[in-house]
Amino acid sequence: MIPAVASIDTASLVLFTLAVAAAATLLNLVPGIAAAWVLSRQGWRGRAVLETLVSLPLVLPPTAVGLALLLLFGRTGPLGRPLYERLGIDIAFTWRGVVLASAVVAFPLLVRSARSAFEEVDPRLPAVARTLGRGPVRAFFEVELPLAWRGVLAGTVLAFARALGEFGATILVAGNIPGRTQTLALALYQHVQVGRDREALKLAAISALLAAAALVLAEMVVHRREKTLAE
Amino acid sequence: MLGPAFIEIDLALRQGRFELAVSARLGKVAAVLGPSGAGKTTLLEAIAGLRPSRGRLAIGGEVLQDTAAGVFLPPEQRRLGYVPQDGALFPHLSVLRNLTFGRPHRHAGGDGFEALVGSLDLEPLFARYPRHLSGGERRRVALARALLARPRLLLLDEPTAGLDPLRARKALAGIRRVREELDVPLLVVTHGQQEALALASEVVLLDAGRVQAVGPARQTLLAPRVLAHDAERRWENVAAAHLVRHDAEGGTSEVRLDGGGTVTIPYSPDLAIGSDLILAIDAEDLLLATSPPSGLSARNAVAGHVEELIPVGTSVYARVGPWLAHLTPAAVAELDLAAGNPVWLVAKTHSWRVVAG
User: Fold this and answer.
1) What is the ipTM score, two decimals?
2) Is B144 on the interface with A (CB under 8 A)?
3) Domain residue spans in chain B?
4) C-alpha angle B152-B154-B156 in degrees, rounded to nearest 5
5) What are the start-end ranges of the H helices in A78-196?
6) Contact A147 B91 (CB under 8 A)
7) What is the pLDDT of residues B65-113, one digit of tens each?
8) What is the pLDDT of residues A77-101, one digit of tens each?
9) Cβ contact (<8 Å) for A132 and B149?
10) What is A3-230's CATH superfamily?
C-alpha cells in the first residue's frame, strides 16, 4: 500500500464528510430556527404533536429513520418519485441522500437548543419592540434572534457535530459507496469489517478531532461575544 | 372627567379563569389603581395591542380597535409608548441604541431628542449596556425610549416598583416633569394610591378585572364606598408643595403647601429651595385639635374646618379640606366633632414623606 495515495483518500474523505455535514446544517438552519421559535410559544393546539415529531429522530434507531427516508425518497417513494421523474433528482444512494439523512438526524439537536434559548428571552422584549414600531418579523430579527443567538449557535454546532458522525440512517439511505456516499463514519465501519484496525483507529481519531474542533470554535465565538457585551 | 374623553376604553378579555372587562372614559392623565391580581398589567397590554381582546379602544379620537367594525391595529401601528415594569430595556443594545430604537432611521438628535436626554440626564449613560445600569437609570432610559418614539399616549406599568424610596421619589418627579414638558398623555398603572395621586388627575379603580369606580382622582378615592372597600388600607394624604428653606441645625426643611399652610419636613438637603414636591402623610398620623395647639413638639399645624365625617368600618375619617384624618368614634365624641367645626391638623415632622421631588 502506498501511503501517499492513502492520505489523499483520507483527505477527500474528510472534505466530503465536512461538506456533507455543512450542507446538512445549512439545510436545517431555517426550518430548525422556525420550529424552535414556534415551539417556544406557549398555548397553541398541536404543539405537543410538533414537539413529538421533532424529537422523534432523537429517540428512534437511526436505521429506522433511514428506512423511513428510503421509503419516502427512493425512486418509487411518494416524494422520491416526483423528484426523480419531474426534476431528475435522485436522493437515495447519492450524496444528497447522505445530506438528507444527516440533516434529519441532527435536526432535533438544533431545535432543542435553540428552543430553550428562545424560551429564555423575556417575552416583554419583542412586545416592546412591537410598540416601538416593529412588525413581528423585524421584532424577531432585531430582538429575539440576537438574544437567543448563543443557544442557536450552540444547537447549530451540536447538529453539525452530529451530522459529521451520522452512520445508521446514512447507510440505509445512501449506502456505503466509496468516492460517492462514503463518509468518515462509513469508511471507519468498512475498515473494521475487513480487519484494518489501524486505518479504522486513524479515522476515529480524525472524527474526534473534527467534532472537538467544532465545539471549541463555537465556545470561542460565544465567549468573545460575551466579552464584548460585558464591556 | 376633565375635558372631553381622550382615552375611551371598552375592552374585555378572558384568560383562563380570569376575566377582564373595563369601560372607562378618561382625560389625558389617568391612573389605573388596584391590588395585585386586579388585571392592571393585562389591561395595559390589551390597550397596547399585545394581548387579544374584544371591544373598542380609541385614543384622542383615533379608533385603534373596534371588534364590531373589524378593526384591530397591531401594536406597531398604535403608537402607544408602553413601558413595562422595570423598563424591559433591550439587553443586547447600548443605552443609545435603546433610545433610538423607536425613532425613524434610529436617528439620535433633533425632534426633542437633546431636550429629553438632557432633562433625564441620560447622556453619561449612552455607551453603557442595560446590565450595568441601576434600577432608577433603567427606568429613565425606558421612559425616554418610549417618549422618543412620539407616542400618542404613554403607558406606564408600576413605574416605581422595586425602587427604594429615594429613587422612587426621583423617578416620580422625573415622570411628572417630563410629562409636563412634552405635554404627553399618560395612563399609569399602580397599586400605590400616593403614586396615582402624584401623577394623575383621574383614576380607574380596578379589582378582580372589574372597574370599581372612575373619576377625578381625589374625589373618587374619597368616595365612602371606595374607602369602605379599602378599609384595610391606610389612607395616605398626598399634597403638592414647594420647598421654602432648609434648617440644617434644626434638622428640618420648611415647605409651603400649595393648598395653604406651612409645614416642616425632615431635613432634605438634596432638595433645592423652590423645587416642587409631592408630600404624603398617613391619615393615622394626622391629629385633630379643636383649639390652636400650643406647647406641642409637633411643628405642623394647619387650620381648617371639618367638612365631613366619614364612618368606615369601626373608625371614622374626618375630612378637613383636602386632608383625611383617621379617628376613633370615641375621639369624635370626646371632641364633639361635627361638620363645620374649626379644627387644627397637627403632625410630627417625621410623619411627612416626600413622594416626588
Assistant:
1) 0.81
2) no
3) 7-229, 236-356
4) 165
5) 80-87, 95-120, 124-131, 136-139, 145-164, 168-174, 184-193
6) yes
7) 999 999 999 999 999 999 999 899 999 999 999 999 998 878 887 778 9
8) 999 999 998 998 999 999 999 999 9
9) yes
10) MetI-like (1.10.3720.10)
- The answer to whether the CB atoms of A131 and B84 lie below 8 A apart is no
| 84-123 in chain A: CB under 8 A from chain B | 122
pTM, entire model: 0.82
B7-229 and B236-356 in the same fold:
no
Q: Which helix (H) or strand (E) holds B253?
A: strand B252-257
> What pLDDT digit, counting tens, does each position of B157-215 carry?
999 988 888 888 889 999 999 999 999 999 999 988 888 988 999 999 999 999 999 99
Q: What is the chain A residue with the closest CA to B51?
A: A127
Q: What angle do CA B23, B28, B33 make, to 5 degrees?
A: 55
Distance of CA A198 to the CA centre of its chain: 29
Other CB atoms within a 10 A radius of the CB of residue A198 amount to 9
Torsions phi, psi for B296 (to 5 deg): -110, 155
Report pLDDT digits (tens) over A20-29.
999 999 999 9
Choices 2.40.50.100, 3.30.497.10, 2.30.30.40, 2.30.30.30: CATH for B236-356? 2.40.50.100
Domain layout of chain A by residue ranges: 3-230
Residue B1 has pLDDT above 60, yes or no: no
**CATH ID of B7-229, from 3.40.50.2000, 3.10.180.10, 3.40.50.300, 3.30.390.10:** 3.40.50.300
